[in-house]
């Protein structure tokens, strides 16, 4: 799946990461009585690998949860579209309602998945 080029956002991320690193270091000091140091008797590569496995699981969880939200939003969007049409509203008017705009935003990942499958 390709992504668009980034645009100017709202909050710079690097200072947030630096703050998180400091909190993590403080937490290590609190838990172990020392900050993370070299030559500490641990296998850093094994620790990092295990953390990476945990990260992969958390990422997959987030992806699956996002798909579920997107699928639900897509279904809600279809149901709302049918209801609006049954009330005699035009598709143009329906698409401009705040509800449909938000459902479209939430359903976008599911819509992309469907488009990817249809292209194959």
Q: What would you note in describing this structure?
A:
- The protein is an all-alpha fold.
- The protein contains 4 helices and no strands.
- The two termini are 13 Å apart.
* Class computed from helices, strands and strand pairing: mainly alpha
Principal-axes shape call = elongated
| Ends distance | 13 Å
Q: Please tell me the overall pLDDT.
A: 87
Q: List the helices and strands in order.
A: HHHH
What's the gyration radius in Å?
Answer: 23 Å
Helical region count? 4
Strand content: under 5%
- Stretches where pLDDT is under 50 for at least 5 consecutive residues are none
Characterize the biggest β-sheet: none
As a percent range, the share of helical residues equals: over 70%
Total strands: 0
What is the topological layout?
Layout: H1 14-32, H2 44-86, H3 91-95, H4 98-119
Helix pairs in contact: 2-4
What structural keywords apply?
mainly alpha, 4 helices, about 75% helix, about 0% strand, about 120 residues
Please sum up the structure shown.
The chain is an all-alpha fold. The chain has helices at 14-32, 44-86, 91-95, 98-119.
């Amino acid at each position: 799946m390709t992504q668009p080029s980034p645009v100017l956002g709202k909050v710079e991320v690097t200072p947030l990461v630096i703050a998180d690193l400091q909190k993590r270091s403080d937490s290590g000091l609190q838990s172990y009585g020392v900050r993370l140091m070299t030559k500490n008797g641990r296998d850093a590569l094994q620790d990092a690998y295990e953390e990476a496995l945990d990260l992969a699981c958390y990422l997959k969880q987030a992806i699956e949860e996002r798909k579920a939200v997107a699928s639900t939003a897509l279904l809600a969007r279809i149901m709302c579209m049918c209801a609006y049409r049954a009330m005699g509203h035009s598709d143009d008017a329906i698409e401009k309602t705040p509800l449909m705009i938000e459902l479209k935003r939430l359903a976008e990942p599911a819509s992309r998945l469907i488009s990817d499958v249809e292209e194959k």
